[in-house]
Specification:
The structure holds two protein chains of two kinds. By secondary structure, chain A is α/β, with parallel strands linked by helices. Helices cover 32% and strands 20% of the residues of chain A. Chain A is built from seven helices and ten strands. In chain A, helix 1 packs parallel to helix 3. Chain A is globular and about 55 Å long. Chain B is built from four helices and nine strands; from the N terminus they run βββαβββββααβα. In chain B, the strands form two sheets. Chain B has a six-stranded antiparallel beta sheet with strand order 1-2-3-9-8-5. Chain B has a three-stranded antiparallel beta sheet with strand order 4-6-7. The chains are: A alpha/beta, B alpha+beta.
């Protein structure tokens, strides 16, 4: 597999992805879009602009391609380099900056690929990244594993369904829960069992 | 304030596009300030010939690595031509936003709208505010 990686000068996440490829002895060519790779990135962007995500701060780097597949930003890139397309459901482009990494959807992937998924999280965590994950309640056994291994810094739970379905699997109080789209007040959401009737 | 190039022979719209009267058509592009704010331009989306827009409408967008910016009509009118050079070499806007890198020409529907646009000095004052 020969990879082209588009980077921006000074981009820490680009360095981590390059380091991953160095560790795995994956051949790659780097094109710095602010330096010698400017023209090539321009051509690449024109040809693939519909596949390139733009956040509030513009295009997020790195972008990697093997000539067919394109992956953007640190987590989809490392997931693709590690396991090909099979982890796609777990990762998407995020919005957080600096050491924080989001766009990790624990419920979006195939549970059979949990080991590979967890290896990617471990690599990110090992590079001093803080991980924010999303869950809708699916794949709760993977959530339990990543919690047990201390891989998650923030979990955003947007669980649609009755709490009886989830209460036996998840130990909410172990999480720093950030409530999003909740129909409950923040205090209730942070302490999700306080306003609910007892089980059974 | 950075050093920008300003022109005397064009009207300026407060959304950083310019309009130049050429006989019975208006040529439109973005100002030097706008191209500088965008940074290195990667792609410019332009309308089709024959499309009609009102003043203030977005007629296209310019994309750079750090920004996406809508391009706003300084005057109402119908698109007569687009600068096809920008499809393959959008980056020329960064070098010369006023001459070779014009974006569209339009047949204006209300020339009195020019009276509401800014002169060179008016545009500089707006940027300094």
């Amino acid at each position: 597999m020969s990879i082209t990686i588009f980077t921006a000068t000074g981009c820490t996440r680009c360095k981590i992805v390059k380091s991953f490829m160095d560790d795995r002895k994956i051949d790659y060519v780097e094109k710095d879009m602010k330096a010698e790779g400017k023209d090539e990135f321009q051509s690449f962007y024109k040809a693939n602009r519909n596949s390139i995500h733009r956040g509030p701060d513009g295009v997020e780097f790195p972008i990697i391609t093997d000539g067919v597949e394109i992956r953007q930003s640190i987590r989809p890139s490392i997931a693709f380099l590690h396991a090909g397309k099979k982890l796609d459901g777990f990762f998407r482009v995020g919005t957080l900056h600096r050491e924080w990494v989001d766009g990790i959807n624990i419920s979006g992937g195939n549970p059979e690929d949990a080991d590979s998924f967890i290896q990617v999280l471990k690599y990110l965590k090992g590079n001093n990244m803080k991980l924010q994950i999303d869950t809708n309640g699916k794949n709760s056994e993977i959530l339990q594993r990543v919690l047990d291994e201390g891989l998650v810094d923030v979990a955003i739970m947007n669980v649609l369904g009755h709490y009886y379905m989830l209460g036996t699997f998840l130990q909410f109080w172990k999480l720093e829960v950030r409530c999003k789209n909740s129909r409950y007040a923040l205090e209730q959401c942070l302490n999700p069992t306080s306003h609910l009737p007892p089980l059974g | 304030m950075n050093i920008y190039t300003f022109k005397n022979d064009i009207y300026h719209y407060n959304e950083h596009t310019w309009a130049k009267v050429e006989d019975d058509q208006i040529r439109i592009g973005i100002t030097d300030f706008a191209q500088d704010q965008l940074g290195e331009i990667l792609f410019i989306e332009l309308p089709s010939i024959g499309d009609e827009f009102n003043q203030e409408d977005a007629f296209g967008q310019a994309e750079s690595a750090k920004n996406v910016s809508a391009l706003y009509m300084p005057i109402s009118g119908k698109i007569l031509s687009i600068n096809e050079e920008l499809e393959s070499t959008p980056e020329i806007v960064n070098n010369d936003p006023y001459e070779t890198s014009w974006m569209i020409t339009v047949k204006p529907s209300d020339l009195t709208q020019l009276n509401g646009l800014l002169t060179r000095e008016g545009y500089i004052s707006m940027l300094q505010e």
